[in-house]
Amino acid sequence: VAELETEGLCGFIFKGKSPSSGMERVKLYDRNGVPKKEGVGLFARVFMEHFPLLPVEEEGRLGDLVLRENFIQRIFIYERWSRLCAEGLTWSGLTGFHARHKLILMSHDQNRARELGRELSGASSRDLDEYAGSYISSMMDILKIKVTRGNHVNVLQHIQGYLKKQLDGDDKRELSDAIEQYRLGYLPLIVPVTLLRHHFMKYPDEYIEQSYYMQPYPNELMLQNVL
C-alpha cells in the first residue's frame, strides 16, 4: 500500500467478496466454521485506512448506473483537488474550487452542501492547510451520497433561474417540460442539461459556465445519457 503513494491514484476498484480485496460483506468464519458476511478484505481495509479520501468501489457494484456515475464523478473531482493542491493551495483557489462544484454537491445533499458553503465562508481565519483537510473530507463524504432525481430537479430549476429574463415564453415552457419529463423518468438527465447548455451558449453566464455540474466529466463517457 505504501508503494502506491507515488502512483498518483485518483480511484481504485476492488474485487467483490475477496478475502483480500473485498470492500464489504466478506465472509468471516467463526470457530464452528459458520460464515457471516460482515468482513472487509485484508488489503482493502489497509488501503482504505491509508487513502481515506480516495474514491473506491467494488467491480460488481459498478453495474449499478447511479453507483458507477457517482464513482467516476468522484474520481474526476479528486483529480482536480490533487491538481489544485499540487499547484499551491490558496484561500482564493479553495473558494473557487467550491464554487465550481457547489451545484454538484447540491445534487447529492442540499442541506449538507449549504452547510459546507457556510463553513467555508467563515473559515478564512483558520489555518489553510488544516482547514483544507477538513473541507475535502466533508466534500468527499457528501459526494458518496447517492444523487436523486428530486435533487437534480432542484439544481436544474436553480440553473433555469439564471435564464428567467432571457428566455421567451415558449423556451421557458420547453425547458420546464424537459425538466419535468426527467423528474418523471421519461427522459435521461442529458436532455435538460443539453437544453440548458444550448441556452447558455446564447446567453452566457460566468458562474454557470465555470460550474462542473453542466459537464462533470468528458462527454465520451455518456453517463448522463442513461441516468
What does this structure look like?
With 227 residues, the chain is mainly α. The protein is built from nine helices and four strands. The strands form two sheets. The protein has a two-stranded parallel ribbon. The protein has a two-stranded antiparallel sheet with strand order 2-3. Strand 2 and strand 3 form a beta hairpin. The mean pLDDT is 94.
Distance between the termini: 34 Å
Which structural class do the helices and strands define?
Answer: mainly alpha
Could you tell me the radius of gyration in angstroms? 20 Å
Strand content: 5-15%
Range of helix content: 40-55%
Largest sheet: 2 strands, parallel
The total of helices stands at: 9
* Strand line-up of the largest beta sheet: 1-4
Question: Would you tell me the overall average pLDDT?
Answer: 94
Q: Give the tally of β-strands.
A: 4
Low-confidence stretches: none
Helix and strand run: EEEHEHHHHHHHH
Specify the overall morphology. Answer: globular
Summarize the structure.
23% of the residues are buried. The mean pLDDT is 94. The chain is mostly helical.
